Amino acid sequence: MSKYKVALVSYLNSKPFLYGLKNYSFKNARSANWEIEFSVDTPSNIAKQLLNNEVDLALVPVAILNEMKEYYILPDYCIGCNGAVQSVCLFSEIPLQQCNSVLLDYQSRTSVMLTKILLDKHWKLNPEFISTAEGYEQKIKETTAGLVIGDRALQLKNKFQFVYDLGEEWKNFTSLPFAFAVWASAKKIPDEIAAELNAAFQHGFNSIEKVIAEEQINYPDIDVKKYLTTDIDFSFDAEKLKAMNLFLRYSNEMESVTG
């Protein structure tokens, strides 16, 4: 039996997808003599896996699409927002305009590039950017701001006086929603596999109340229902595609200047 390898992020915002992959029957897949094998990791590691052909399909930060010779996007679903997203934020003790440097989260290329785009084009600021490693959140103080994503961002929301939600700031800047991650592959996904995966994801969203109940125990300080049903927008529609293409164009411009 052949395997189709799928990778997705390990954050709270991917739990509906993960629930679907774990609980959908995939009867059509088994009858066709192939199976889905899935794994979870950080966005940056998943991006590397897709670029290195270690997985067939991955929920990847959209920033890596500029690095792929060709890519195919599984339609319908993404991890996005239409305004404030809550889990991709710049944190600081003082107003951002007074900060001299910004710590960049090591776990996602998209959020890092979005930070650079917004600082340059939206806020018209030019701070020093600092690469990070695990535990860097402790260094967000005085004139140093920090980008934090995912579950860690949700847990830091009430610990800093100044919080800049990048989903909200992108919407203020462009009037568009945003797609942080999409389901992408380097080769076209066979139609029967695409149909099975979309059915699995839909099963996850049909079971959203179960997902919320399970995860609320793991995240007692977070309103999981609000986050998964209001803050995150999982629909990959025409407006998010437009936003993604604009983001990729801005990314290319930034890379050509800094490169």
How would you characterize this protein structure?
The chain is of the alpha/beta class and 259 residues long. It has two domains: 163 residues, D-Maltodextrin-Binding Protein, domain 2 (3-Layer(aba) Sandwich), CATH 3.40.190.10; 87 residues, 3-Layer(aba) Sandwich (D-Maltodextrin-Binding Protein, domain 2), CATH 3.40.190. It is built from ten helices and eleven strands. It has a six-stranded mixed β-sheet with strand order 2-1-3-10-4-11. β6, α4 and β7 form a beta-alpha-beta unit. The N and C termini lie far apart (45 Å).
| Lateral strand order in the biggest sheet | 2-1-3-10-4-11
Query: How large is the count of helical segments?
Result: 10
Number of strands: 11
| CATH topology-level name of the largest domain | D-Maltodextrin-Binding Protein, domain 2
CATH architecture of the largest domain: 3-Layer(aba) Sandwich
* Major sheet: 6 strands, mixed
Under CATH at level 1, the class of the largest domain stands as: Alpha Beta
Binned strand content: 25-35%
Question: Fraction of residues in helices?
Answer: 40-55%
Summarize it.
With 259 residues, the protein is an alpha/beta fold.
Produce the secondary structure layout.
Blueprint: E1 2-9, H1 15-23, H2 27-31, E2 34-41, H3 43-51, E3 57-61, E4 72-81, E5 88-92, E6 101-104, H4 109-122, E7 128-131, E8 144-149, H5 150-156, E9 162-165, H6 166-174, E10 178-185, H7 191-206, H8 208-218, H9 224-231, E11 233-236, H10 238-258
Parallel strand pairs: 1-2, 1-3, 6-7, 6-8
Antiparallel strand pairs: 3-10, 4-10, 4-11, 5-8, 5-9
